[in-house]
Amino acid sequence: MLPVVVVHGGAGHIPKERSERSTEGVCSAARAGYIILQGGGSSMDAVVGAVTELENNPNFNAGCGSVLNVKGDVEMDAIVMDGKSLGSGAVSAVRNIANPIQLARLVMDKTSHVCLTAEGAGQFARSMGVPEVPQESLITEYSRMRWKKNLEPEANPVEFQMGKMGTVGAVAVDSEGNVACATSTGGILNKMEGRVGDTPCVGCGGYADNSSGAVSTTGHGEAIMKVILARLILFHMEQGQSVEAASDLGLAYMKSRVDGLGGVVTVDPQGHWAARFSSGQMAWAAAQKDTLHYGLYTGEHFTQSTEMLLID
């Protein structure tokens, strides 16, 4: 069964003209993570590698494709968690950083803290030699268009988050059975300055524990925080539920209790995996046993050989 990596590109409504690029992006990220695992890398190396690839892809709401806050600025959140030690690192409201997921890993590896925020995270990044990038390099024309549209007085609140690209994340199990998760996001469209969502919160944006598994979440952050979605799913797995059943139970509870939609990628230490969502779409991909699995709509599941992809 091992190793395996599963990635998501965000739950929600993906416009038709962007859906193909979302699928291609998650497939590319899963392939990148799987190559790391095949080369003997750890599950943490794999999830950070996969999410870095997604942060560098302007089709996703993370890194260089992040949505803008109400003032038109980029503020990003990210988390990593290591299932072997329960070590975790996170950053929130960071600016001018190309790859927040790598900064989150540095918080885990180089400090005694779990989460650094805003300017404190920026100071830490500078002390670690992480290069700053101009904010303009993180803003796409699409993000700016969505921002302007949602500032209009007649903006429809139902459509407010429609067309937003998704939070990105990955979970993996390496050949030693260690699990890890990583999640990164630009947050929600036109959010208040300083808003912290679910992504950097342990148990919400992600959780990893070798005794049960790993989860990375996406969807409406405030709803995910209220039900502590990632940890809730692992609780169901600890009660004997499968990765799919546990994921569905967590998402169903979030929908019934706080009317929140979302999606998750989940693995257990044996290499069973699931990509489940209650939203209309979620771009996802998984690589295991030299096979790439991927989909976008509910019930969709395509496969192809990763060996073919390695040649491309």
UniProtKB/TrEMBL annotation:
GO terms for cellular component: cytoplasm
InterPro entries per record: ASRGL1_meta, Ntn_hydrolases_N, Peptidase_T2
Catalysed reaction equations from the record: L-asparagine + H2O = L-aspartate + NH4(+); Cleavage of a beta-linked Asp residue from the N-terminus of a polypeptide
Positions with a binding annotation for substrate: 195-198, 218-221
Entry keyword NADP: no
Keywords tagged on the record: Autocatalytic cleavage, Hydrolase, Protease
Signal sequence segment: none
EC number: 3.4.19.5, 3.5.1.1
Molecular function terms, GO-annotated: asparaginase activity; beta-aspartyl-peptidase activity
Active-site feature positions: 167 (nucleophile)
Pfam assignment, any one: Asparaginase_2
Site (Cleavage): 166-167
TM helices/strands, residue ranges: none
Family statement drawn from the similarity comment of this UniProt entry: Belongs to the Ntn-hydrolase family.
Protein name according to UniProt: Isoaspartyl peptidase/L-asparaginase
